[in-house]
Amino acid sequence: MVARVVVAAPGSGHGKTTVAAGLMAALRAAGHAVSGHKVGPDFIDPGYHALATGRPARNLDPFLQGEDTLIPLLRHGSAGADIAVIEGVMGLFDGALGTEGYASTAHVARLLDAPVLLVVDASAASRSVAATVLGFAQYDTRVRLAGVILNKLGSQRHEDEIAAALEATGVPLVGALRRNENVHAPSRHLGLVPAAERAADSRQVLPELASWVAGGVDLAEVVRIARTAPALSGPEWTPPSGHDGPRAVVAAAAGPAFTFRYTENIELLAAYGADVVEVDPLRDKELPEGCAGLYFGGGFPEVHAAELSANVPLRTAVAEAIDRGMPVSAECAGLLYLCRELDGQPMVGALDATATMTARGKLGYRSAVSLADNVLATAGQRVHGHEFHRTEVSPAAGPSAAWGWDRTVDGFAAASVHASYLHVHWAGYPALAERFATHVREFAAGG
Fold it and tell me: Is 332 tagged catalytic?
């Protein structure tokens, strides 16, 4: 049995990430073993969950992973925990456009049979909050709205007025939180600043965040609600076992510029015989000893372009490794790092292309098909992924495109190179991890 609760909101901006991370930290401080999970493809919020829980970040997304994989992934991610806190995405019923809420928080809550706590920003309303809650409770009765947490309250009178109005809705009030600027996380062009970029500040504020939530939320009631979730059927997701052949080293980009990657992707590489060693392209001067593969995930290289460029020794080592045919899989930030330049700053130069920041971003799910055989996918292979960036790559020449979707081609693919804006959660497509790890092991063995 996995005790579990979903933290949702009427829309973005109500403070559900702050409340969810604070709830995780408060429950942990109260002696619970807590696992944190994020609905959707978000990389940033799970970073705060990891700090709050002391456990790896996890995502749950029907589009990326498949509906049947969600319960196994929840069981895997919450193994050893006594409560799972699942943060929603956008508004409770907001999913992929044109799908009637597919991959929404409500969809995931139904698949996991999990009760929902609704976080509502009450800073600009009082009794009207009750009307909002009532509407959410009645809109889809397959979703069990088990409680409300009021956020950004101004006074006791403000709280009392809303609490009285909520009584008629039948949805219990389980938390009331006052405005607290000390627990605010800064934002920029793709959302919150990742926890890894402000790790010291984030760790410093965690005790205050936990205290703030514990002081305004009935933690015992939250635990009771989470324990009303029924037992889950189905197996736990586990990376494949049984690889007993030679192993090889994969350098995985990490540090403040490369904070976007799925935990299960790393677990799958390890299961298929790749020993993952983190490398910070801002500070490390060389690749790890015995390196036979490169995995560059997403992040904010545009914010750190000057520092990345200034680390000439590592840029040179990466370029030389790729020139020797070392397998590389690069997603979004990794794609930018492999270009000749980013916003005028010299990068690795393995791809004959330039990258620049743009005024508008690209964000959304993608149904993609691989256009050529490469180290990650075979030609014609279909996957679900997502893109999330505000940069643009202009190729001068080079390998074939990696993926195609909606009359769009994306990235670069060659025998030993895969570089694309597309993020794919390999738990939904373990063959990608197996193929990449196989190429890495073969390179380590001399081709």
Answer: yes
